[in-house]
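It would be a great kindness if you could assist me with a short task in structural biology. A protein sequence and the structure tokens that stand for its backbone fold form the material at issue. I should value your view on which stretches of the chain appear to form regular backbone elements. The record follows directly beneath this note.
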Amino acid sequence: MSQSLKRFHVGDRLSEMAIFQNVVYLAGQVPSDTTQGIAGQTRQVLAMVDRLLAEAGTDNAHILMAQIYLADLADYDAMNAVWDDWVPPGDAPPRATVQARLAKPDWKIEIVVTAAVSAGA
């Protein structure tokens, strides 16, 4: 049975999340406290990803693809240390990491995630 499109936390410009046919698509997640360094900003963003995935009825073990945007590739190793602690062993998803000029200069990271959800979500 086909699942209808559901959008969550809809604003004028974007939705934070959409679910279609048992796949959840997250908007780019960015830190709220930009006074923190890359490790703190990464933890914030991953906590937002966790919260949205839980709302969709799934978790980080079901990520199909992650795209990570770093303002500075010098932060790559520190970001990876936080990421490696967050990803469940044996469930590291396909991932791309690129340097990008982010929409706000104080953001050090933005993460976009696509994940599988259960049929009941």
User: Anything to note?
Assistant: The chain has a mean pLDDT of 94. Residues 42 and 79 are 6 Å apart (CA to CA).
